[in-house]
Specification:
This protein has 95 residues and is of the alpha+beta class. It has three helices and six strands. The strands form two sheets. Strands 3-2-1-6 form a four-stranded antiparallel beta sheet, covered by helices on one side.
Length: 95
């Protein structure tokens, strides 16, 4: 098991991401916190759930997270989805 973490100071807030992968680099848990409201409110959990059981690779994570937001017709209020995705893909191993 490996733990990845990143923080990103967005234009109007802070994203914190913790990713837990197995030995094959498959995401087993994704935790996204910060001071960013989503609309609808539950969408943060939709993104976290959509990342589970996928390979932790830039293109895969980016595609899955974008797709989850589009599918649910949701938005990050006052924040850019690209900044959240960037925070996830730039997460580095915690030692």
């Amino acid at each position: 098991m490996k733990i990845y973490y990143d923080e990103h100071e967005a234009r109007k807030g802070l994203f914190k991401v913790k990713i837990i992968t197995d030995s094959q680099n498959i995401i087993r848990d994704a935790i996204i916190i910060g001071d960013f409201p989503t609309s609808p409110k539950e969408d943060k959990w939709i993104i976290e759930d959509s990342l589970k059981d996928v390979r932790f690779e830039d293109e895969t994570v980016s595609s899955i997270a974008s797709g989850a937001f589009e599918k649910e017709n949701s938005t990050l209020v006052g924040r850019a989805l690209d900044e959240l995705i960037e925070t996830v893909v730039e997460a580095r191993p915690v030692e």
